[in-house]
Structures
1.
Amino acid sequence: MNGMVTRISGATVCVDLPDLKIGDRVFVGVSRLTGEVVRLEGRIATVQVFEDNRGLGIGEPVTTAQGPLTVRLGPGLLGGVFDGLQRPLYKLQEDSGDFISSGQDPFPLDCSRSWDFSTECTVGATLKTGEPFGKVREGHIDHLLLSTRDGTLAQVNTGKLQLENPAAHFEDGQPLLGWHSWPVRKARPVRRKLPPVTPLVTGQRCLDFLFPMLKGGVSIVPGGFGTGKTVLEQTIAKFADVDVVVYVGCGERGNEMAGLLDEFSELQDPRSDRPLMERTIIVANTSNMPVAARESSIFTAVTMAEYYRDMGLNVLFLADSLSRWAEALREISAALEEMPGEDGYPTYLGSRLSGFIERAGVVETLSGTSGSLSMILAVSPPGADFAEPVTQACLRVAGALYMLDTQLAHRRHFPAINWTHSYSLYSDTAMAHFTEQHGEWARLQSRCRDILQREEALREVAEVVGMEGLQDADRLLMRTAEKIRLDFLCQNSFTDDAYATPKNTLEQITTLIAEHERINTGLKEGALLDDLLMEDANASG
Amino acid sequence: MRLAEHRYSSVSAIRGPLLFLDRAFAARLGELVRIETPDGRNLSGEVLKISGEQVLIQVFGGTQGLDTRNTTVSFTDAVMRVPLGAGVLGRVFDGSFRPRDGLPMFIPEFRMPVLGAPINPVARAHPVEFIETGFSTIDGLNTLVKGQKLPIFSCSGLPAREMTDQILRQARLTDGGNFVLVFVALGLTHFEYQFYQQTLEHMQSRFVCFINLADDPVVERLLAPRLALTVAEDMAFRQEMDVLVIITDMTNYCDALREISTAREELPGRRGYPGHMYSDLASLYERAGRIHNRKGSVTLLPTVTMPEDDITHPIPDLTGYITEGQIVLSRELHQKGIYPPVDVLPSLSRLMQHGIGKGQTRKDHRDLANHLYRTYAKGCDLRRLEAVVGRDGMLAEDRLLLDFADRFETDFVHQGKLRRTIDDTLDTAQRLLDEFREVTR
């Protein structure tokens, strides 16, 4: 059944087509641009078009895809680079050149590739929805193929599998394929959510030691421009101890994505010694690509992340940046002439955001294994003012805050994580875990915090009286704090120092604190700081 | 495709730069329209919105003299396209691509849509090749590379004009190459135009200019940078040239955007600027770049005047979020008589890491830059202490750092109107650091 375009206002288009549902995917105009139904009024549906629709005319045909916007899930997603609608960007480049044109819809998975399919299921086996019926080897992981329905198998193939051929048949004759579709806006079902307990090691000393993250947790990274959000996100993407990383460049710079792709295709995953790209999925919707597709990009990406989680893997979802997503939401809302809330953002910003963030967590999958989906989300507050709606809405649902500080960035202290304002609600759980493995963790952490805290107060005094005017104990504290800041909290992402194991982290801080305590004891016994430092230098040098 | 041309005289309303047309048949979004004024002039416009038979048109070139009875509108069945070809080189145009230099229009080889299409992120090549601007603070500490977008954040009264002028004269590729400058002036005063004209006369034909003067139509301020970038993309990616696009001043662009947005009755965002300003600016800035397996590049150097010297104002703020760094000018340095008054501490070039060192500039570049920055930053920190306790109350080594900060400003940042090659810049840096090492020994 064909409808037609009746009204065009930017990317918001009204079409006359009956029997549509909210969220349905439609193809608009002669060049078949992808759109999503966002509002229904009688026969008239308002459609948000995901592609550049210049040249679209009144009266052009509209058809429905008979279902919502979906992503295609199957082996071969790892290493892929997609746009916000899961269109494979390399394929798009092959088909239509270096610039993106509208109306293209290549299949996101490679159907010509054959996979070694093995299964323990035999004819007559009964499958439940979400249960694995076999696996293929994808990069360094066993990619489990999950059943999309209940049923009994009547026939099973093994050996080489191509995605368009069935891997098995049910008794009712329905084929079981190696891939399936899933609506982007619908969270994939799980048996239940579990509490997060295992630390997610990022390799960043400041994070792992002071503000640890858990597998299945959510942290946000707000920071003004130039504070190193992107570098931090990308560094974590390289080193985090997870099985799969999904990285979304949401409304950010094209050159940054180019840099990321260059680097990730050269670098090795330190844990599996395979190319880093093999464990990474990239969704790139740069700032000059259509705004509506930017809005859908995080949902496209999180659905792919959930798919790998459902295989019982640990997945890390990184988005850069959530503010651009929120701005896209605001633009769409304004085009729909909805009543604006704070700063022009729609009033449903908070609920939409929490709906999305709650897709993270540790879960018991439908097949009974456990998998996790963690999120580290960058936020770009306008004017580095953290009181703005997006940061505040994120804070209500996130478990950790890594606040990036413009002052630290200007001093080239990277990662520019402000240690007084950042926090992690996962700290206790993670610390219990680290303490079990590496001892002392908790005591050192509180000692380190204490030193940094007291430095803050002392610095104000020092600015008035000068360092000379301070007492020896205070000067020692200032000295140790400086060492902690420069040698421990600072970490250059462009050298070998970019990654620190928890063991190294602990060793380093142990040495720093031990030195501090030793000299401090000396001071208490009445020695002078300068003498003690001299002694120390002689002993070590 | 229409078989007959439709001419309409059913204009129902004119509001600011917008024109409402009734009973129009089969218009297209973004379609170029021709408007004939009652006194026989021709204007062009673009379809912004279509609701059934009512069409909303944005008029380029001002709506003065239009009426609702005798104005006629005809549709061209095409989106706005930019005439392209080798003939653009050495020419000066206005914001609607009419020659401003008194010469006849060149003969276009072909035309491309004015808004362009986004570069596929996987087709982008990461920017790595050095462009020399002749300023030590940029070349040495905030290096510009081909395909980068690096804005200059200025304040009113600071010599951003002199700096852009000097960059126009002296920017070059160290390995030679086919280098072209595109100069886009938005809302330029006649006074400033005269200033730039002298420079342009000396530039021979390695440039293209788009000049929108302060009393030219506001809508053209939105159009001019897009025309320029389409020309730049064509020169870069078809004719294999390295193009440096200098835009001055983006603040005027954003104010024009706000003006048009208000006329369209869009919801105002921060300080009245439209909510889609980020995406709009990105649609300009993101056209900079390089592409794998193609020779040319588009590099963007826009100037932003920060209203009230406020870096958190929406214009510099959104710009900073899109561009790969920023060059920040300082009123304090300017008052000390230092030119260019670049404050290197908040300035940053994100793509510098890959564009310097062996093969690009010099082997010792990275070390020198890091060292210089760190030592100067320490000196600046100590200045605050100096203000409280006085110079005499400070440690000897701290006083040396203070001296270094002063020397850095007068010898490295300050260079007057002289051009410094990258070697001069690095030698100066080396000399400063050597002297400092000498006295601290």
2.
Amino acid sequence: MSMTAQLSTASGVNHVDADIKASGNSLGIWAMRVAFIALVVGLPMGFFQAAERSGLFPWLESTAVYFASTTTHGVLLAFVLTTFFTMGFGYHTMAHSINKKAFFGWIGFWVSLVGTLIAAVPMLTGAASVLYTFYPPEMAHPAFYVGATLLVVGSWFWVADMLIGFTQWKRENPGKPVPLVMFAIAINALMWGWTSLGVASEVLFQLIPVSLGLMETLDPGLARTLFSWTLHAIVYFWLIPAYIVMYTIMPKEAGGRLFSDEMARIAFVMLFIFSVPIGFHHLYLDPMQAAGWKLLHMFGTFMVAIPTFITGFTVIASLEIAGRLRGGKGLFGWIMALDWKNPVVLAGMLSLLMLTAGGWGGVINASYSMDVMVHNTQWVTGHFHLIFGGTTVIMYLAGAYWLWPKITGHALYSKTLAVWQLWLYAVGMVVLTGPWHALGLAGQPRRVSSTPYNQFPEVVASWGTYELLMVIGASMIVVSGFMFIYNLCKTASSKIAASEAEAKVEYAQAIHPPVRVPRLLNSFTFWNWAMFAYMIISYGYPILQFAFIGTPGVIPWGY
Amino acid sequence: MSSIHIDPLEKKWIWAVGTIVVLTWIVQLYYAIADSIHPPSNVEVIDSAKLHMTEEFAEKNLGVKKEEDGSYTVTMVAARYGFYPPMIEVPVDTKVKLRIASFDVLHGLHVPGSNMATMVVPGYVSEVTTAFTKTGDFPMICNEFCGLGHDYMYAKVRVLAKQ
């Protein structure tokens, strides 16, 4: 690779006006504070659940507490942590990459926060134990649905902010490529807009009216179909910020260059297109959709392998550049030459490893014919903890280690503690999810608080050995979560100023910094229409059918 | 004219990944068509509040029936917190068609180690056809959260040797 000539030029530092910087930093850190409070409250609940369902601590067992905890754990980590992290990261990115101030800003933040607090009351008092996937016709307290809706509505202000900033910048800079980091966060915002429509329709037209008694019955088949619209793409809404850290921050932190700016854009565009119209792999075993539609969604589901593997290639190639610049030789020597003591680099490596393992597991879930063996078993829990907890959240943690000194102006309290924390987190995640995959293959269902199948003692006994491992893994994750929060708090209250390098917001530069890129890789218009068409094809009839198949209404139930 | 740089190695990589995706499509399509492996997808509605008033799901008609072609049809109801009838007996290596409806909320069922699995969604009849390949007693576990008694919801499948 002959890139040395270009390496001395170009910088990823952009001019930012002081007031825009202040606004982006302030929105960024406040949204992330909420996100990480959700994390540190949600993690011990996960540990409790692992311990409770293991059967090793009989004095701990309580079905009611377990399902209230599961619901809260899911909502806090999958909805609150992710939405607030992504909002905060987006506000910070918009200020620092394109020098734009959020138009709505705090409105979105407050609507989402108030929604979260409203939903927290019924969740914590056990009045909303319907899990974060809702599960009508079981009904929770209306405040749960109203609060969850406000959380999403708040995020729509953020979506508007990202798209307004993106559009304004393009108008002021005709023909210039939007900086990759902003391109990616804006396409994530657009995708979240599309994604959230499914669950929003379910909640607004079915769950809130029924929970308030305004409607007597609902169609759970329609509710599940609408939820599937959201259920897979929301995973990419969580994952894309992690990929953004890998593409635009990690190469710089590693001391190298981004291997390809254009391939990164292609990957993000593909993630957008193949995110939403493929949700039926969550409904493979549901009776209310015909097989042909499931097959169609399967084809699209597997397409996501392409942007995933492009990401793997581009990100690893970027790391290889860094490794070789640091003196690494040979086929694998560059790996050892990487800066394993840099939290972003370390998190990225661990994240990619867990993505590889979790991705292969996901191939089974997504398979039209093999899903039946693992559907709703612990395999699925193992899969999404590896992809979400492992691959995604570890990059949020790395992002926070990167951002905290930049926003607070204080040096990171302890890089060593951060490195130990990330190792402990990743090892804990593997120790937790490995046994879950085994338990799933052995048929243990997910979403149970105990396994009292005492007519089948040999089946239950075959699961026993894995239960202890699961508890050990969960405890490692909880400890590492506290280490993370401790490090951030100590950083915020530190008296040591961040070094210039630590305080500077600098995104990775590509080997070939793009001068012009094709319109399709710099604009969303075409892709937005493509999404519209693809959604009509894949969700049009499957939703319309509920207007004429005549499902008798199903009455709501408590739990 | 704007151009994009794709490294030749990355191009090969994308071709390889594309080939893998197409192969996974072909394998799944092949088994779906050749072995007729499809997930339960019969799109058949029913009034969950009136199951007991239908012919098929009335209590006296639940259970195992032998069809004229030698296959078996099992009719069951899923209701908090059990499957009814709570035990079924079917022969090994014989086609078994399960038809099941929910009396109340969402349920799911799975007989670990077999392809007997489906969601049970109120308002719909689920139908799944398989053949058990091993004899013995197996749990049929509810694998979808259906309320605070969900843990205790399971039935027994007894697979008998062929006579």
